[in-house]
Amino acid sequence: MFYSNARAAPIADPQSTLLGIALLVLLSTACDPQVSLQGRLTDSTGQPLKVGEIRVECPDLCVFAVVHNDRGEFVGSKLGRGCKADCQLRARSVGFRELAASASTYCTHESGPLCTEFKGNLVLERGP
C-alpha cells in the first residue's frame, strides 16, 4: 500500500472567489478619474433648448450628455483618464446647426496634460 504525507490544496469557496474578483475589478477601475461634462444649451437669443445632445469626442474616450430639463441643462460623465487638447466638443439639436469646437475651450479642470472636467454655456444657431 502506498501512503503519502502530501495534502490536497484547499479549494476556495465560490463566494470568496467572487469577492476576490470583484475587489480586483474595483481596484483596477478606482484609479481612473471621472471625466465630467455639464452646462446649459441655448439658442442665440438665450432661450434654453429643451432637447439636445452634447459630446466630448477623443480618440479613446467619448463623454456623452443630453439636455435633461426645461432650462437646457445637461450633465454627463464617464470613467476615464481624461481628454487631450485635440478632442472636440460637439452639440446638436433639431432645427439648429451643430456646434463643433475645441474641447480645451471648455476645460475647467486639468490633471496633468489631460482635462477631466468640461463646463460651459453652449449656444446653437438656427439652421439646417
Describe this structure in words.
- Helix content is 13%, strand content 43%.
- With 128 residues, it is mostly beta strands.
- It has a single domain, classed as Sandwich (Protocatechuate 3,4-Dioxygenase, subunit A), CATH 2.60.130.
- Strands 6-5-2-3-4-1-8-7 form an eight-stranded mixed sheet, with no helix packed on it.
- The longest helix is centred in the N-terminal third of the chain and has 17 residues, at 14-30.
- The chain is elongated, with a radius of gyration of 24 Å.
- The chain starts with 13 loop residues before the first helix and ends with a strand.
- Mean pLDDT is 82; it is low at 22-30.
Element pattern in H and E:
HEEEEEEEE
The fraction of residues assigned to DSSP E strands is: 35-45%
Given the C-alpha coordinates, what overall shape results? elongated
Helix/strand structural class: mainly beta
Distance between the termini: 89 Å
CATH homologous superfamily, by name? Aromatic compound dioxygenase
Radius of gyration, rounded? 24 Å
Mean pLDDT: 82
| Low-pLDDT sequence parts | 22-30
Count of DSSP strands: 8
Q: Could you name the CATH topology?
A: Protocatechuate 3,4-Dioxygenase, subunit A
Q: Which second-level CATH architecture applies?
A: Sandwich
Strand order of the largest sheet: 6-5-2-3-4-1-8-7
The CATH class is identified as Mainly Beta
What's the main sheet like? 8 strands, mixed
Question: How large is the count of helical segments?
Answer: 1
Helical proportion, percent range: 10-25%
Count of domains: 1
